[in-house]
Design a protein that fits this description.
The chain has a domain at 24-138: 50s Ribosomal Protein L17, Chain: A (Alpha-Beta Complex). 53% of the residues lie in helices and 12% in strands. The protein has helices at 2-10, 27-44, 51-70, 74-84, 87-100, 139-142, 154-160, 163-171; strands spanning 46-50, 109-116, 123-129. It is elongated.
Length: 172
């Protein structure tokens, strides 16, 4: 009987020097998860994820957003480039943020509870920016080159058409 009481009272119930969420992953996997979540947030403007993942990545997104608004220098651009890995996206995010969030220094994101996920009953959350924001790459990269139409000679055209269609064209 004494052994049970002793374990209850002497057990380590306090969380000293323990912070953050493990999310069932090791550090490298968590880092990759955070990068993909941040990239999706800055590309699409919102993400749907679990509550625990949203809370763990929220601080990082707020930190990046604050750095963008504080200074538009090379250090801030390189910090954002760590997550986006594309220079056109970095430039676009900087210009869009400066126009949408004028004079704002914090509170860029919001979390809305969507419901429970079917299967494991995890609480799902939509993480988005407070103001509606649309990031898009430069138009030059989005536009696909126009394919040139093939010029077909009249002789080849006439061979492929049936005699009835040829008669109608001749009459016109």
């Amino acid at each position: 009987m004494l052994g049970l009481k002793r374990k209850v009272f002497l057990g380590n119930n306090m969380k000293h020097r323990i912070f953050g969420r493990k999310l069932g992953r090791n550090f490298n996997e968590r880092k990759a998860l955070w990068r993909s979540q941040v990239r999706s947030m800055f590309i699409y403007g919102k993400i749907k994820t679990t509550d625990a993942k949203a809370k763990s990545v929220l601080r990082l997104i707020e930190d990046i957003s604050a750095k963008i608004m504080q200074k538009e220098d090379l250090i801030a651009r390189r910090y954002l480039y760590r997550y986006l890995q594309d220079r056109t996206w970095v430039n676009n995010v900087f210009t869009t943020f400066k126009t949408v969030f004028v004079g704002q220094k914090s509170n860029f994101t919001k979390m809305e509870k969507i419901g429970r996920r079917y299967g494991d009953d995890a609480l799902m959350v939509e993480l988005s920016f407070v103001k509606p924001i649309a990031f898009s790459k430069d138009k030059a990269k989005e536009e696909k080159p126009v394919k040139k139409e093939k010029v077909v000679k009249k002789e080849k055209l006439q061979k492929s058409k049936t005699p009835k269609k040829l008669k109608k064209e001749i009459k016109k």
